[in-house]
Amino acid sequence: MSRFAEPQDAAFRRLNDSIGFDWRLSPYDVDQSIAHATMLAEQGIISEADGAELRRGLEQVRSELTDGTFPFADGDEDIHMAIERRVTEIVGRVGGRLHTARSRNDQVATDVAMFVRAHAHEALERLSRLGRTLVDVAERHLDWPMPGYTHLQRAQPIYLSHHLLAYFWMVARDIRRFEAVIAATGRLPLGAGALAGVNFDTDRRAVAAALGFAGVAENSVDAVSNRDFVLDYLAAAATCATHLSRLGAEIVLWSTEEFGFCEVSDAWASGSSIMPQKKNPDAAELLRAKAPRLVSNLVALHGVMHGLPLTYNKDMQEDKEPLFDSCDTLELCLDAATGMLETITFRRERLATAAGDQFLAATDIADLLVRRGVPFREAHGVVAGLVRQALQSGKLLSDLTPAELTAQSPALDEEFYRLLQDGAWLETKVSEGGTSLARVREQLERARAALR
Ligand code: ARG
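# arginine complex -> structure
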């Protein structure tokens, strides 16, 4: 019997069915159903024999799903109903006992929590690999000077290793974020029933332990309403993708002939259909472009959840596609970032020439004056005057005569020329976290320790 006298409209079904995407929850749905059936039998809510039959049916469903022979049926609204239907086809009437003391509301929340946990682990594994790659590449380019930029204007020279390690620390923070995501999935929703709890003496803790949850959700109403862990995953993924987009953007820029700082390997580039000379850093461009999509997935689910009355609403079915898309996109981007970095070539000469721009020593000249007792703000003005004079006369700073220097400030002496010697002003950045080699070595040590 059905409550409904009329069949569902075809367009309603297309709108309402989630089987087209939530089939991806199937391994988790099978695991949780096995844990649930086992608990029901252990608690004497169903017989041991029925528990064993349900497990047999579920194991067959699992192998059908893995080898691609699972027979999806026309009426399957979602993966939960499809699996229950199939179990009943396999084991007969006993299949109808599987949904005892359970609702799709606590079931779907549990599947999604398990999916999020698994993919947070996927992200962590990939982030560790990317982190290790960044440290390795940094180590190989330890003392390669390059210009550091602000406003994309040459600002102060740094070592390439130092610049690359900046991305390592972003990755390290991403790792923390995904660890927090895993913690957020730690409480089992199953056992909440539709919303109020169930009419049976279930053992939720046993199910939690069997499925790798640290504990059970404290409140059945919250348990079926909660999608925080999805939001947390989407937020962590959006931030991580934003980091990758900045890496991608820099590699795109650095690969131009104008910069010429690096070249991605052929394996990570494409050619042009019309211009034979071209080698395009597509992977880096796509890393740059994917981030807003992951941000929009986060925003989409915030839109779904905000103002949503407790407890379950069908709106929440909309958690899945953004989640799946963010997982797929992020995992692919992390693999791509790692692969591209493992094979990238940097061009030492081009980096060094750009870093040798004497104007990059302007701050250091100002600091020289500071050490001679000139207040920093005044020193800033003196050096600005020198830069202006050099630009106007088309000279290098080192071409300015001692007379021209003392005209700007009597405190400018021979030391000025020494300071302008190649690279000298990189090694003066000795403050903790700065670019001097000793500090970068220290940083590499810490990065390696963080990876362990
Ligand atoms: N397909 C549904 C979802 O993804 C499963 C839960 C359905 N619950 C319900 N009360 N209709 O959210």
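# post-check
The mean pLDDT is 96.
Residues 18, 22, 78, 104-105, 108, 312, 316-317 surround arginine (CB under 6 Å).
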